From TrEMBL:
<keyword id="KW-1133">Transmembrane helix</keyword>
<feature type="transmembrane region" description="Helical">
    <location>
        <begin position="121"/>
        <end position="139"/>
    </location>
</feature>
<keyword id="KW-0472">Membrane</keyword>
<feature type="transmembrane region" description="Helical">
    <location>
        <begin position="94"/>
        <end position="114"/>
    </location>
</feature>
<feature type="transmembrane region" description="Helical">
    <location>
        <begin position="6"/>
        <end position="24"/>
    </location>
</feature>
<protein>
    <recommendedName>
        <fullName>DoxX family protein</fullName>
    </recommendedName>
</protein>
<dbReference type="Pfam" id="PF07681">
    <property type="entry name" value="DoxX"/>
</dbReference>
<dbReference type="InterPro" id="IPR032808">
    <property type="entry name" value="DoxX"/>
</dbReference>
<keyword id="KW-0812">Transmembrane</keyword>
Length: 149
């Protein structure tokens, strides 16, 4: 597909890289000292406790609450890995699915916050589009290495 300025594959690479930059910004803007000493997960505890769906409260209590420091590291470094993977186009389909899952978790947890909903829905939509458009065909290490042909 040829479009103005770039090919279709290159436009999907632009979307992929933009999504990667968005994930990198999610990682960069965290106050790491506060986040890793309980601030991030402590904030999420308050959200989960008041959640309207019992299965979300129960899942949070089972998975996150018993290990807040581990979960803080997992969330922060998952965002970093997603950002770098998408920017450089390395293991792109895995990064897209991982990001989609993380966005859906954020979406469900923050179901009452419309500002967060918009961000997570847009990121999820871009992930789906880039995944089904095989958005690692241009400007990616996956393409250079012959991965996911």
């Amino acid at each position: 597909m040829q479009t103005m300025w770039l090919s279709g594959a290159e436009w999907f690479a632009v979307l992929r890289i933009g999504l990667g930059l968005w994930w990198l910004e999610s990682w960069r803007h965290k106050d790491k000292k506060t986040w890793f000493t309980g601030g991030g997960i402590g904030w999420a505890v308050g959200i989960a406790e008041k959640h309207r769906w019992q299965f979300v409260r129960a899942g949070f209590d089972l998975t996150v609450r018993p290990r807040p420091q581990l979960m803080a590291y997992i969330v922060a470094y998952a965002e970093l890995a997603l950002g770098l993977g998408l920017i450089f186009g390395l293991l792109t389909p895995i990064a897209l699915v991982g990001g989609l899952i993380l966005n859906l978790i954020y979406f469900v947890l923050m179901i009452h916050d419309w500002a967060e909903q918009g961000q997570n829905l847009m990121m999820a939509l871009i992930s789906v589009v880039v995944l089904f458009a095989v958005g690692w065909q241009a400007w990616s290490l996956d393409d250079a290495l012959g991965l996911f042909q």
